[in-house]
Amino acid sequence: MSLRGLDGLLEGAPSFARALDAAGTDAEFSVSDGLRAPLIAGLIHRRRKAGDRGAYLLIAATSREADAIRQAIASLIPEARTTEFPAWETLPHERLSPSAETVGRRAEALRMLRDYRDDSAQSEAGPLVMVASVRAALQPVSPHAALAEPVVLRAGEEPRIGGAETGLESLSRKLVDFAYTRVDMVTRRGEFAVRGGILDVFPPAAEQAMRVDFFGDEVDQIRRFSVSDQRSAGDPVELLELWPARELLLTDEVRARAAELLPKFPALSTMLEKMTEGIAVEGMESLLPQLVPGLAPLTGLLPDGGAVLVVSPERVSGRAVSLAETNREFLEAAWHAATVGAETPVPTGDSGMLTVAELRRASHDRPWWSLTGFVRDAEDLDGAVSSTGPNDAEGGDEPRGLTVIDGVDDAIITVQGGPVRRSATDSDATAQALVHLSRRLADGWRAIVTAQGVGLVERARDLLLETGAAARIVEELPAELEHGVIYLVTGIAWQGFENEEAKLLLETEAEFFGRTVTAQGQTGQKLARRRGKNVVDPLKLVAGDHVVHETHGIGQFVELTQRMVPTGIGRDAGKALREYLVIEYASTKRGMPKDKLYVPTDQLDQLSRYVGGEAPALSKMGGSDWEGAKKKARKAVRDIAVELVKLYSARMASPGHAFSTDTPWQRELEEAFPYAETLDQLTTIDEVKRDMERPVPMDRLLAGDVGFGKTEVAVRAAFKAVQDGKQVAMLVPTTLLANQHFETFQNRFAGFPVQLRALSRFQTDKEAKETLEGLAAGTVDVVIGTHRLLADSVIYKDLGLLIIDEEQRFGVEHKDSLKKLKTGVDILAMSATPIPRTLEMAVTGIREMSTLATPPEDRHPILTFVGPRSDRQISAAIRRELLREGQVFFVHNRVSSIGRTAAKIAELVPEARVAVAHGKLSEHQLEQVVQDFWERKFDVLVSTTIIETGLDIANANTIIIDQADKYGLSQLHQLRGRVGRSRERAYAYFLYDPDKPLTEHANERLETLAANNELGSGMQVALKDLELRGAGNLLGGEQSGHIAGVGFDLYLRMIGEAVNTFKGEDVQTTTELILELPVDAHIPEDYVESERLRLEAYQKFSAASHPQAPAENVELVLEELTDRYGEPPAEVARLAAVSALRRRASILGLTKVVALGPTLRLEPVTLLDSRRMRMTRMYPGGKYTESTKTLQIPLPGGTASARSPLAGVGQRSTPDDGDIVKWTSTVVATLLEPDPGPAAAAPATS
């Protein structure tokens, strides 16, 4: 499915054919946007017909434009290999390294160039087309990136470095030389880990991380693995090539030059000293010009032949000049910031960038084609070319004069044609398209409609057939188009066009459906998922952290330590290593050191992280204070539990609508989603659909960080409801958010018969009246609005789904109205930072909860700067964003001075188009400003916190917050979430008044934001907010005391237990189980070297041993360890067996399974008479004491007079540790567990 042959259909147009005749030389073309990609395809085809086998470099003003051209060319020339050469996200002098992903994509593009040059079969098969933004094209390329040889790993062979075979140890050293970072656990591109004979590595350009199993020095197997759960996935891979992870490698020559620079740049001594030692440091790429000679222009790396194409040369030249200016400004701002403690910038001398003229000179004798959008009249042509001679390439960035083409009078060639014409009166794009196509066909034109997805093409055909038009879906365009037929094809066109000469019309989905086309998301690897529960995260536990032990109370983590414990029985008794977490508690005796608790690593489920306010007082072990605090808290949560159970009962009693399963249109809508869904999104969508298909009303909370895809879940749920003839209401807290969601839903529902309306102060009285009438009559399917939706005047004919966005923003005054709406209706509530009250309901099961914790593809953490305000910093930050054609939010929260602030910004950055938005503007003024910013008519939006929720503008990737010390923590997090919603690197500047000292709380708030800048940190910020503000501000003073006393996590669990009690359900009380057997069951250091990863493995076994965990979980943990670390030793296998035994014992309510001397002791036990007889028969010498509910069984191979055989596990004379665990499990099963099947007369225990 492609648009192959479109340029051939246009060759019948004289001006297009005339343009193709210029394929052999320099030329400037005047051509409309829609015809640019077909012209480029035609020029490439013409040169290849003439025998040229070179590669083509397309330079555009921005990366977004470059990628759009690349996709269009790939559709027009399916046999072409297309790639984008991306720019660094950083400026040359900044002490920031480009992301490993960017480095990988650049290396992949350069590798394709080199392979194309060296492999004639590739160049014969089809052209190579590389696209680049002007920023990427003007940055000289390091020979380390252009000339590096990869490390080659092939199954069944030893690794090869530069053609020579080597082993795993040498490979590890080479990866360090290639600037990979050695870590315990691989989660990001550019990292590697070695564990025994297993290498985990995440190549910068790869979609997934790779796991390489070695047998000696030979590669045994190569597998992909998921960094989210560290498990292998998919079929084995035969070949893996590892390329450098950075563009500056610390070779001997580079280290020597770094040493030479040390005396010249003392301010950079720390960075340079590490580099001389061979340690890669953040921002070292900024020293490339000083450390690496022979930086090459991109055009100089192209194979012979081909051509260079510049799209919109006026904008490209302008941006080249802006790039140099912005770089200089940033350097000045950085030097100024360095005077108040910031890092010293790297003195690059010049801007570190080439000029367009230098780039052109390096292209040598290749044709240089310029495609401009300016239409030149014939009278202007003489003046346009007379000022420069044929070879006048000197003198800055002005393009040199173009050579005269034989048979062509003018050096500037105009291609006739323009955009698809539209009436400005009709707002329905599809209706306009149908009428327009009909008229064109009647006038003898030929027509093509193209869309990215098969579903949209089929939808367009159905709409055309309904009007009586002849519509035909084709895989590829025929050489001749039949008159009177509209051809529909799946493909990507940059824009639609109309060409009068060829009488040819092409409409894209943007013109036909009125939807904005978004570049296809790239399927790739998800980042590591975060833990949803507030458990102790062993990967982040550090000495000094406060934890809560269910039995002993609040303590402080000290360290992970190892102790020798007795193992074996009788003659085989010995010592084994066991690992413990050391927790400190308050001293039970005044003046004495703190008490210490050694928690076995298989009991980590007893610990949770403490959240609840200032640093808490440590509990006393065995004291009454902890039990007292728990007793008070349990009493306090009873009232909350009663209220929650009432809500639950009312919901369960309400009759709901069971929605139908997905329709073909539902699948069509979902296929048209332009991005790759994250794993969390897919899971959540399934959960929501499952809830909707049940007859009980749905009440689900969707918690997800800003920009993590909550809206798409809402879109799909709303569409599912409409498919069943139900109405949908979406309630949002602000008018801006209503407008934003309306735009999103409108784009997603384009082409489907869904009546969508908005209801907020942005609508006129007439529009609001029409919407209300439509809701009552059932003609409006979906309404999106603010609290106006809660008014008594809003009547729904058949409301089926209510979506509430940012639910915590609705106050008490809205609750009664919401309750009326909610009766019998499915509810989907969404929040980025759920308040504790919302969490209570979700955690206790009153509401279902889904979490979006996986960032969408290609997202980067937001670079966060905290510092004093300076004009230089503001000017440079804005200019940096304008350079990549982005937009800027500037938040100033005082309406009285916001005008002066905007004027100051306009003065600092005269080229920026500045707009102002605040809540005191009239509805229509505010709507117009936001709409204009959305449509990119303004570059900088100076606003109050009205943008805190509601603006989802992917093109805005810098936010500057003035007087950031005056805002709350969650508010600052929400504001920062306005940026970073696209593949571009985002920047957030939190500025404060340099003349006023920061308060302690303000300082802590800003420090928290700087520390929690990773994707998905919303929950961490919310919990920190709970600490800083105190729970009393959120839950009331009385509750806050109880939360501080027991910690937020245990407090929520207590509510859950109380709720279950009132619901009449069994409350699963987890009692502390002491399980001590004389066996060596631990994770050896030589199996898992990293302490934190051993702790993580222990925690997984601990979680698998929980009584509510599925029985197979222990085996799954063992499988995971085998996958990640290789075949486990016997100690780990025994640890798995002990975990399985712990789970069985916990289910039976045992609190002790202990080997004391030669005897196994179990308690509490209720042993039926039949089981006592079984004990006497199977375990001679066994003893049951009814008064203490204690069971004692002689250990096998022990020294007791009554020896117990290894019943059920063989008759080995000297039992090993594994036998003892199996034997104990058999004792538990045969004496305490109910017999399987209906024959079991009564349970063995109580």
UniProtKB/TrEMBL annotation:
<comment type="similarity">
    <text>In the N-terminal section; belongs to the UvrB family.</text>
</comment>
<dbReference type="Pfam" id="PF03461">
    <property type="entry name" value="TRCF"/>
</dbReference>
<feature type="domain" description="Helicase ATP-binding">
    <location>
        <begin position="691"/>
        <end position="852"/>
    </location>
</feature>
<dbReference type="GO" id="GO:0003678">
    <property type="term" value="F:DNA helicase activity"/>
</dbReference>
<feature type="domain" description="Helicase C-terminal">
    <location>
        <begin position="877"/>
        <end position="1027"/>
    </location>
</feature>
<dbReference type="InterPro" id="IPR027417">
    <property type="entry name" value="P-loop_NTPase"/>
</dbReference>
<dbReference type="GO" id="GO:0005524">
    <property type="term" value="F:ATP binding"/>
</dbReference>
<comment type="function">
    <text>Couples transcription and DNA repair by recognizing RNA polymerase (RNAP) stalled at DNA lesions. Mediates ATP-dependent release of RNAP and its truncated transcript from the DNA, and recruitment of nucleotide excision repair machinery to the damaged site.</text>
</comment>
<protein>
    <recommendedName>
        <fullName>Transcription-repair-coupling factor</fullName>
        <ecNumber>3.6.4.-</ecNumber>
    </recommendedName>
</protein>
<keyword id="KW-0378">Hydrolase</keyword>
<keyword id="KW-0347">Helicase</keyword>
<dbReference type="InterPro" id="IPR011545">
    <property type="entry name" value="DEAD/DEAH_box_helicase_dom"/>
</dbReference>
<dbReference type="InterPro" id="IPR003711">
    <property type="entry name" value="CarD-like/TRCF_RID"/>
</dbReference>
<feature type="region of interest" description="Disordered">
    <location>
        <begin position="381"/>
        <end position="400"/>
    </location>
</feature>
<dbReference type="InterPro" id="IPR037235">
    <property type="entry name" value="TRCF-like_C_D7"/>
</dbReference>
<comment type="similarity">
    <text>In the C-terminal section; belongs to the helicase family. RecG subfamily.</text>
</comment>
<dbReference type="InterPro" id="IPR047112">
    <property type="entry name" value="RecG/Mfd"/>
</dbReference>
<keyword id="KW-0547">Nucleotide-binding</keyword>
<dbReference type="Pfam" id="PF00271">
    <property type="entry name" value="Helicase_C"/>
</dbReference>
<dbReference type="InterPro" id="IPR004576">
    <property type="entry name" value="Mfd"/>
</dbReference>
<dbReference type="Pfam" id="PF02559">
    <property type="entry name" value="CarD_TRCF_RID"/>
</dbReference>
<keyword id="KW-0227">DNA damage</keyword>
<keyword id="KW-0238">DNA-binding</keyword>
<dbReference type="InterPro" id="IPR041471">
    <property type="entry name" value="UvrB_inter"/>
</dbReference>
<feature type="region of interest" description="Disordered">
    <location>
        <begin position="1200"/>
        <end position="1219"/>
    </location>
</feature>
<keyword id="KW-0963">Cytoplasm</keyword>
<dbReference type="Pfam" id="PF00270">
    <property type="entry name" value="DEAD"/>
</dbReference>
<keyword id="KW-0067">ATP-binding</keyword>
<dbReference type="GO" id="GO:0003684">
    <property type="term" value="F:damaged DNA binding"/>
</dbReference>
<keyword id="KW-0234">DNA repair</keyword>
<dbReference type="Pfam" id="PF17757">
    <property type="entry name" value="UvrB_inter"/>
</dbReference>
<dbReference type="GO" id="GO:0006355">
    <property type="term" value="P:regulation of DNA-templated transcription"/>
</dbReference>
<dbReference type="GO" id="GO:0016787">
    <property type="term" value="F:hydrolase activity"/>
</dbReference>
<dbReference type="InterPro" id="IPR014001">
    <property type="entry name" value="Helicase_ATP-bd"/>
</dbReference>
<dbReference type="GO" id="GO:0000716">
    <property type="term" value="P:transcription-coupled nucleotide-excision repair, DNA damage recognition"/>
</dbReference>
<dbReference type="InterPro" id="IPR005118">
    <property type="entry name" value="TRCF_C"/>
</dbReference>
<dbReference type="GO" id="GO:0005737">
    <property type="term" value="C:cytoplasm"/>
</dbReference>
<dbReference type="InterPro" id="IPR001650">
    <property type="entry name" value="Helicase_C-like"/>
</dbReference>
<dbReference type="InterPro" id="IPR036101">
    <property type="entry name" value="CarD-like/TRCF_RID_sf"/>
</dbReference>
